[in-house]
Amino acid sequence: MSYSYQDALAYYGVGGAHPGGLSLTKQIFHNENITPTTKILDAGCGTGQTSAYLAEIYKCDVTALDIHPVMIEKAKKRFKERHLSIKTLQCSVENIPVSDETYDYIISESVTVFTNIKKTLTEYFRVLKKGGILINIDMTAQVPLHSSDLLMISNVYGIPHVPIESQWISLLREVGYRRVNVLHSDSLSSHINKNLEQPEFHISPSIDPKLMKILQNHQNVTTQLATKIGYRIFKSIR
């Protein structure tokens, strides 16, 4: 059986896999005006760590979306254990089954780059209310990558391209976001050297060894390309 990087994250139940983890998410939302009437879409929710935090702290209306059935199962288990009323959607971020202009915020943490980027950004735009905010934390090339670097990335993550910062901004503006700000930028080499919290794990029973190999390959790529790739936090207003 062939597995993807997303399969490995799902079966190991990795929460806070995005750079900065939940601590970074907390910092971002601390500066936002979130109230109990705020509607937030956690696009690519994984095991539901961010969704649960937002619902618990801000008592807001949260929808958790993920395409992977194992991730959704683990997210639902988290919400049930914490008695949280969070709606879940199992679907692709490229085709979100909700009406136009539904959400005040979308939070997307290390998700968009693994999809058809323009299609996903357009779908986020569609389901955001006018004046709504997209917070997108995503892999970003520090410099244009060589073909050998892209091959290494493609072999592990199944993606053909990692945009540089200016390309991300151009894509966001092309889709229609009227204001695009970079809240934070970092290279993986700098990020790795910081004393950061570790991700959490909710491991499925009977893990196929192939899944651990994928995570090991992920570690190898991030080590070898640590000075060439990083991440950005984009805050875009519809």
Main β-sheet, in a few words? 7 strands, mixed
For CATH, the homologous superfamily is named as: Vaccinia Virus protein VP39
Helix content: 25-40%
DSSP E strands, number: 7
Please state the overall shape, judged from the principal axes of the Cα atoms.
globular
Strand content: 15-25%
The separation of the N and C termini measures: 42 Å
Structure, described:
Residues 40-132 form the Methyltransferase domain. It is a single chain. This protein is an alpha/beta fold and 238 residues long. The chain has a single domain, classed as Vaccinia Virus protein VP39 (Rossmann fold), CATH 3.40.50.150. The protein is 40% helix and 23% strand. The protein has 9 helices and 7 strands. Strands 3-2-1-4-5-7-6 form a 7-stranded mixed sheet. It is globular, with a radius of gyration of 17 Å.
